Amino acid sequence: MKTMTLTMPLDMHVHLRDGEMLETVAPLTSYSFSGALVMPNLVPPVTTLDMVRGYKKRIQAAMESDDFEPYMTLFYQNYSRSFLEEVKDHIIAIKLYPSGVTTNSEGGVASFDIEAMRETLEAMSDLGIILSVHGETNGFVMDREAEFMSVYEMLAVHFPKLKIIMEHITTREAVKMLDQYENLYATITVHHLMITLDDVAGGMLRPHLFCKPIAKRPHDREALLKVALSAHPKVMFGSDSAPHPKHTKESCGCGAGVFTAPIALQLLCEIFEANDSLDNLQAFVSDNAQQIYGICPDFKEVVLVKHDFVIPEMYGSVVPMRAGETLTWSIERVD
Ligand code: DOR
Ligand code: ZN
User: Fold this and answer.
1) Which-ligand-closest: CA of 16?
2) Among the listed residues 120, 122, 116, 184, the one whose alpha carbon sits nearest the alpha carbon of residue 158
3) Does the pLDDT at position 8 exceed 90?
């Protein structure tokens, strides 16, 4: 039977939440990944060293395996250099949210005033802390990411030594930026490699596919597929797996987020196999991220096998993407 072995898979953008939800989702990510970049958009957001330490401990307590590294982040604010020096060994990135663009981002950046941000961004650049960015404006929903490109350009030019990650890119405009600025990198989700806006809202509304940034046009998905399938050295996998309880997704005022953590590697095998690119999957799910972040996760090997896997209807209170459907790849074992 056809198999695919991935060593040290990494999810460089995941939402693990807290409390009961953390108990549900942390074991799912820690089972099949060696490490993950954990987003800080809790309520209240993670903004102090004590909060980072406490959150990491709660994640480690909720994991079922100890061969998983939660790479921690802070929620971007204008932090002082002395604070960043104190915190730098406990985080690998700071996540910047423009205010109000997505779940729990109300405390984010209201205006991109470079001078106001200079101390923080220069200190991050000197200390090797990566800037991870949710790149959307408050404009028309389909244009928000493309409109944000001028902010990325401004950041990339003013802080040339700062590594900037364009998180969960969804447009050909963002793909183009990768080759224009040396210090811009990107994560790509598995759902944005599969769906367009049509899948979300072209027929009956599918709330479990609703996320921010919203899925875009076919030509955008093609541009994402091109760089993911070729494992462009500046892109890496970040699931943006974002669990919300079923009743909050299947309701008026549905929260943004697609839950893919337990099926991400299986889906990636399907996509890369269908496009004759399985040889590049290792780089996309691990090697590129190790290079970009300069991280060296503990050894873990995930063996996938070409064997049907029926996606459960629920994981705890959460409905996963493609619930109840059959995948052609499954995880055989993790060593
Ligand atoms: O769809 C999303 N869900 N996008 C984000 O940026 C945040 C996330 C969440 O936290 O639910
Ligand atoms: Zn996210």
Assistant:
1) 1
2) 122
3) yes
CA 14, chain centre distance (Å)? 5
Please identify, by atom number, the ligand 1 atom nearest to the C-alpha of residue 258: 1
Residue 132: Cβ within 10 Å count: 27
**Whether the CB of 256 sits within 6 Å of ligand 1:** yes
With vertex at residue 119, the alpha carbon angle to CA 95 and CA 48, rounded to the nearest 5 degrees, is 45
pLDDT tens figures, 88-121: 999 999 999 999 998 899 999 999 999 999 999 9
Neighbouring residues of 197: CB distance < 8 A, sequence distance ≥ 6: 142, 214, 215, 216, 217
pLDDT of residue 193: 98
> Across all residues in the chain, what is the average pLDDT?
97
Is 240 designated active site?
Answer: yes
CATH of domain 3-334: 3.20.20.140
Predicted structure pTM score: 0.98
Give the whole-number percent of the chain exceeding pLDDT 90: 97
Pocket probe for ligand 1: among 240, 258, 260, the residue whose CB has the most ligand atoms within 8 Å is: 240
Catalytic option among 89, 240, 287, 308:
240
Query: Which residue's structure tokens are 């993670």?
Result: 46
Total residues belonging to the chain: 335
Question: How far apart are the CA of 307 and the centre of ligand 1, in A?
Answer: 31
Place of tokens 């709660």: 58
